[in-house]
Amino acid sequence: MNSILDSRPALCAVIDQVAEVTGYLWQKGWAERNGGNITVNITEHVDEEMAALPAIAPVEQIGKTLPHLQGQYFYCKGTNMRMRDLARRPMENGSIIRILPDCASYEIIADHPVRPTSELPTHLALQNYLLETGSCYKATLHTHPIELVALSHNERFLCPGELTRVLWSMIPETLAFAPLGIGIVPYKLPGSVELADATLEQIKEHDVVLWEKHGTVAVGKDIMDAFDQTDVLCKAANIYMCALSMGFEPDGMTPKAMREVQQVFKLPTKRPC
Q1: What is the CATH number of the domain that holds 69?
Q2: Using CA atoms, how far apart are residues 184 and 202, in angstroms rounded to an integer?
């Protein structure tokens, strides 16, 4: 069977990058069984022939009306699909969807009728916000970083700003490469509209959001960017937990030292695009 990627090298490169990142997620232990999901806006790579493709599965409802998504196209990881399988066969474990004119439903157009992730309402709500605000970000990543999820079981780190402060203080690179810190969403039912709404509020000020006792959601210019930001924050969490395992609470960088890093490297306090 021919793939929609045939003769579309730019689109193929996007999907290849998704496959690369899903391999990293599996290797890190962040994607047990079918855990985690990915959505990437691929509209810029859709040509006339691709836009004319018919649906290959019944129309599905999103659960929300998202006016900025009309006519947009997304690659989505499939529900119940494993990241380790997607890394090898991305078009068999994910699909390309088209948002319909009502902005509240979608249809699958390629390659197989693989239903998108159950977290699709959250992913598409974030994508709608990114388009509404003119952001250059196109990718959303949900995964289960072990150290960050572990910290979310401690009430201290559910207080706004506390986890960001601790993670920034562990190593200068965390502040440099995740300058917007990490948002917190108290536990809500996975896949629910309530979870989507709460995540959207946090993503307005952060590129990475931690779902209590569940995982993280990140947005980025592409899927590698979203992965990198999550990875940097998880490295800081690992350093913190290693210090605890040696029997001491790490001092961390002082507020003065962190301000110096912010000033010298002119780190943004808001999303740059």
Answers
A1: 3.40.225.10
A2: 7
Q: In the sheet where 182-185 sits, what is the strand order?
A: 60-61, 105-110, 94-99, 73-77, 37-41, 139-143, 215-220, 208-211, 182-185
Active site residue 173: no
**What is the length of the chain?**
273
Give the per-residue pLDDT at 164. 97
Q: What φ, ψ does residue 183 adopt, rounded to 5°?
A: -85, 160
Whether 211 is in a domain gets the answer no
- Of residues 272 and 12, more confidently modeled: 12
* pLDDT number for residue 1: 62
Total domains in the chain come to: 1
Specify whether the CB–CB gap between 116 and 97 falls below 8 A. Answer: yes
Cβ–Cβ under 8 Å, residues 79 and 58? no
Of the residues 20, 119, 147, 162, only one is catalytic, namely 119
Strand partners, 184: 210
